[in-house]
Amino acid sequence: MSGETVLETEDLTRDFAGFVAVRSVNLRVARGTIHAMIGPNGAGKTTCFNLLSKFLNPTRGRIIFDGRDITSLQPADVARLGLVRSFQISAVFPHLTALENVRIALQRRRGGSFDFWRSKSVLRALDERARALITDVDLAPYADMLAVELPYGRKRALEIATTMALDPKMLLLDEPMAGMAREDIDRISALIKSLAADRTILMVEHNLSVVANLCDRVTVLSRGEILAEGDYRTVSSNPAVREAYLGTGHG
Predict the structure, then answer these.
(1) Which residues of the chain have pLDDT under 50?
(2) Burial annotation 74-109 (CB, 10 A radius, 16+ → b, else e)
């Protein structure tokens, strides 16, 4: 953990016809850490993620990634720089196999073409790397199974594998544990921890036991603003944080 900032925002703000969803957020994410963004429903977490990944443009403020101002860039440009997002809803091709899904992600990394017209022998050259990525996320026995047939937790692991195929410097994970059983949560937690060995992770997560066990630093949002920041022990004992969570069902 270097302590060097890899992602930061300055006065990041987004309003929708007068409703301020994110207000003057100054976020600092240190390189090599797992950083959580938490908060009650409606706190602005998803809007903040949409701003960071450039699916939304800010009303005002700046976003700096790896020393570069990315505020005006498009989502694909940001991904090419190494800031890659996964979504709360699994975003894989359901009627392709796990291997084919990862291979398509590897094809995308080659440039502006998906090479759909290339011969199978050319595409199979990517299989070795694709299988390695599938093994990394504990999916080797499922390589030839259609994505639609995968158990839910395994489908989320496949999504992470396709994200890793883009060779990101930093991952934005949007509720990676949503809807998972305990066994899947433990598996994906271990996977996220292994991925963080040589990259940075920022995650939105409602499961506070996951945040407590996994994350180096936590930013708490409430009503679009940063309410508290620090390690989990610090923020969980903050009276203002407890009050913000009161009655939200997230304890």
Answers:
(1) 1, 112, 247-251
(2) eeeebbeebbbbbbeebebeeeebbbbbbbbbbbbe
Total domain count for the chain? 2
Q: Does residue 88 sit within a domain?
A: no
User: Contacts from 191-195 at CB under 8 Å and sequence distance 24+?
Assistant: 191/137, 191/138, 191/157, 191/160, 192/34, 192/160, 193/34, 194/136, 195/160, 195/164, 195/171
DSSP annotation of 114 reads -
Helices (H), 125-181: 127-136, 152-164
pTM for this structure?
0.86
- What would the two tokens of residue 213 be? 């066990």
Task: List beta partners, residue 225.
Answer: 222
The boundaries of the domain holding residue 153 are 93-166
| Cα-only R_g, the chain | 18
Nearest to 227 by CA among 214, 239, 215, 210: 239
Cα 129 from Cα 135, distance rounded (Å): 10
Contact present, 88 and 173 (Cβ < 8 Å): no
| pLDDT value of position 244 | 84
